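Lecture 7 notes: from sequence to structure.
We start with the chain below.
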Amino acid sequence: MDRALYTSMTGAKHNTLAQTVHANNLANAGTDGFRRDYVAARSMGIWYGDGFPTRVHALTERPATDFATGTLRETGRELDVAVRGAGWIAVQAPDGTEAYTRDGKLQITPFGQLLTGSGLPVLGSNGPIAIPDASKVEIGQDGTITVRAMGQGPEALASVERIRLVNPPEQDLMKREDGLVHTRDGTRPPADARVRLVSGFVEGSNVNAVEALTEMLSLARQYEMQVKLMKSVDENTGAAARLLQVS
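Predicted structure tokens for the same chain:
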């Protein structure tokens, strides 16, 4: 009885943990540049000394992130950019370290800071990018930022900075709890001149909302099954106790 209860209890617990991952994926189906997380489940034996495992419990893992490209959506906005193919935009994470994102919905603050849609500073060759007052700002395919100063004609264009674009191998990357992609060893990969941007577009999430919702419903059914199993074990234990009392 104890073994069946242990198995069903851990199964219900990890069904709930898997639900949180799928719920997070579904909640970010409309987040620009979001990358969905995978969830894997397996059984794990509990060993005490030599011999066979005394119990088996369920285990849920988040083994990797899906780095597949999302759908590009045209906006026509000059500050919106999307990475074409492989590559990442370097940003400054909340803890001050360098991180990477595909969120190209950029904005300029009143102080001239270039930020992502979520408010993270975009990095250039010399740190966070600052843009002077300008009547027009353009971002080239290679990340070069060109501005036209206030009061100047269309011929007075100047390059002020270049967005840092990188393309490290996927196996060297991991997504942390801040939702940003980091290198596993914390190193800064070199800028990659082959990474290209598309102006006037933003990249959507790579989450399949129907698939995520279906997985959540399946996990809900599994949770109900585990709870029913725990109830059955409890009823069987009660029946066994009554038989012992009679004898």
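Points to note: The radius of gyration is 26 Å. The chain has a mean pLDDT of 86.
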